[in-house]
Design brief:
- The complex is a heterodimer of chains A (about 120) and B (about 120).
- By secondary structure, chain A is mainly β.
- Chain A is built from no helices and 11 strands.
- In chain A, a hairpin with a 5-residue loop joins strand 4 and strand 5.
- Chain A is globular, with a radius of gyration of 14 Å.
- Chain B is built from no helices and 11 strands.
- In chain B, strand 7 and strand 8 form a beta hairpin.
- The chains are: A mainly beta (about 120), B mainly beta (about 120).
- Chains A and B meet through strand 4, strand 5 and strand 10 of A and strand 5 and strand 9 of B.
């Protein structure tokens, strides 16, 4: 079975500061890893994903994440926060095979950006 | 393209009432999913449909039924609503990648907010 843990249900940063949202996963097979963002009263949209190849993945809006197999982590970062980054962020994992396509989500992290 | 659409946007039900949440996608995707979102619990898969004519249970299927009406539409039915089903419901769709590669992107609808009194 696969699972995802997001450390910190709320993260608060100042505008211009580094954003770091933590995600650890558990999977018995090579994972496919995703970060989704949800703006207030909207559905989820993909920020970035790791499937195979380069472990540093760049996404939309200046976000990036690095897959670290030894640490079972896929932390999301952005060098400089913007007010428009305020949203809830979800890490998710899928493993293919008989579980193909199905996502298991973490609990979510609400990012607040202060002026 | 509208992407994934869901109706209704909001609904209030009394305990025991039934209702159907509608979902449609115009991206010609094979796979469709229903999730519920509850505070502090992320999204949990209720049912999914890998292709037209097939449906399977997800993590939290009790109290729900689904119908994959055609390739475009995937509905979720609550036969006898309970307060525990108060939640935000999301529909999503995805397309299998070629060559047996996994990790396809899911595209989400705007959600249906359901309150069961």
């Amino acid at each position: 079975a696969q699972s995802v843990t997001q450390l910190g249900s709320h993260v608060s940063v100042s505008e211009g500061a580094l954003v770091l949202l933590r995600c650890n996963y558990s999977s018995s097979v090579p994972p496919y890893l995703f970060w989704y963002v949800q703006y207030p009263n909207q559905g989820l949209q993909l920020l970035l994903k790791y499937t195979t190849g380069a472990t540093l993945v760049k996404g939309i809006n200046g976000f990036e994440a690095e897959f670290k197999k030894s640490e079972t982590s896929f932390h999301l970062t952005k060098p400089s926060a913007h007010m428009s980054d305020a949203a809830e962020y979800f890490c998710a994992v899928s493993t293919g095979g008989t579980s193909y396509g199905k996502l298991t989500f973490g609990q979510g992290t609400i990012l607040t950006v202060h002026p | 393209n509208a992407g994934v659409t869901q109706t209704p946007k909001f609904q209030v039900l009394k305990t025991g009432q039934s209702m159907t949440l509608q979902c449609a996608q115009d991206m010609n995707h094979n796979s469709m999913y229903w999730y519920r979102q509850d505070p502090g619990m992320g999204l949990r898969l209720i049912y999914y449909s890998a292709s037209e004519g097939t449906t399977d249970k997800g993590e939290v299927p009790n109290g729900y039924n689904v119908s994959r009406l055609n390739k475009r539409e995937f509905s979720l039915r609550l036969e006898s609503a309970a307060p525990s089903q108060t939640s935000v419901y999301f529909c999503a769709s995805s397309e299998r990648l070629a060559g047996g590669i996994y990790g396809e992107t899911q595209y989400f609808g705007p959600g249906t907010r359901l309150l069961v009194l």
